[in-house]
Amino acid sequence: MKAVIFYFSGTGNTWWVANQIEKKLTQSGIETKKYSIEAEEISDNKKVQSLIEDASIVGFGYPIFGSDLPLTYIDFIKSLSKNKGKHAFVFTTMMLFSGDGALVAARKLRRKGFRVKQATNIRMPNNVKLPYPIVRSFPMSSEEGITKLKEKAAKKVDKLVKKIVEGKRWLQGWDPINVSGGLSQRVPMKLIGWTRWARNYFVEKETCTECMLCVEYCPTNNIRFENEEFVWGDDCNICLRCYNLCPEDAIQFKEGTLNKEKYPRYKGPGNGFNQNKLKE
Ligand SMILES: Cc1cc2nc3c(=O)[nH]c(=O)nc-3n(C[C@H](O)[C@H](O)[C@H](O)COP(=O)(O)O)c2cc1C
Ligand code: SF4
Ligand code: SF4
Question: Which of 5, 92, 248, 263 is deepest in the core (most CB within 10 A)?
Fold first, then answer.
């Protein structure tokens, strides 16, 4: 039996969880391979389709942004062809609350013909702390906190893998509290228009080394370096990769983030994580 996983990760959490699932499924006797939706290897849609056809189980993973999917992940699902009832599972990573965030993809995948049997949200470290009301008070985990969250996440992965192997249904977030909680995040966020957030970015020139990692690794090619200036367009996935993973913390989101103690950046889940991994 074969499984394939397609994931997107902004800052490494979903990459880490996808790794755990790949490992555990393989240990359970299901030959599994994971691909980032940014991987060069699957940039051709035909390759994605042949991987899906070749597998008995297809996994879909993404980080929760306001109880919703990253825009690039919505595009990825849209690009899939219809199939006849293939077993699929969905996993998301989140800081605390995702409402029905995993079911949003499950519904889209059902319309593509997938039989989604499992959909679950897995808590991982927070990667968003910005100078906005409420968002500015989101906690950032210490190293010890990250380790504890990963331990709990690994247990949830074990449960998910067991359900997948046994073919048992496990759909989280369908109850009225989670559905209404999810909607109460998704609707205002859509109205505000996430993509315009990128207009708040700027580079602190004194600390920038012009390594160009931000330009190279932006998943939507939304950052340009023109006339000695970094320019953000409106095609932003709001993944916060550029902001969090700049090696010098030179990327700012409004003036407030110049205070780096108050606005620490999230550097990913460890375990060999670096930006290269996000495109594998
Ligand atoms: C713009 C944005 C919105 C977010 N919204 C939520 C949310 O609604 N609920 C939640 O629990 N976590 C939320 N988070 C936290 C991330 O979902 C969480 O840290 C996730 O594990 C990041 O995964 P990644 O490292 O694979 O990108 C948000 C993060 C960002 C950047
Ligand atoms: S990643 Fe940071 S240091 Fe490198 S070019 Fe971008 S802003 Fe400058
Ligand atoms: S501009 Fe930054 S936050 Fe927006 S998609 Fe690119 S890396 Fe992500």
Answer: 92
Shared domain check, 176 and 55: yes
**pTM (predicted TM-score):** 0.97
Same domain, 182 and 201: no
Determine the distance separating the centroid of ligand 3 and the alpha carbon of 249, expressed in angstroms.
14
Ligand 1: atom nearest CA of 124 is: 21
The answer to whether residues 184 and 200 belong to one domain is no
Same domain (yes/no): 40, 171: yes
* Pair (237, 213) in one structural domain: yes
Hey, what's the torsion of the CAs at 107, 220, 276, 123, to 10 degrees? -40
What is the distance between the alpha carbons of residues 249 and 244, in angstroms, rounded to a whole number?
A: 7
DSSP single-letter state for residue 181? H
Closest ligand to Cα 240: 3
Runs of H (alpha helix) within the chain: 13-27, 45-54, 71-78, 101-111, 143-166, 176-192, 213-217, 241-245
User: pLDDT by residue (tens digit) across 24-83?
Assistant: 999 999 999 999 999 999 999 999 999 999 999 999 999 999 999 999 999 999 999 999
In contact, 94 and 61? CB cutoff 8 Å: no
CB-hemisphere CA count at 13 Å for 92? 28
248 lines ligand 2 (CB under 6 A): yes
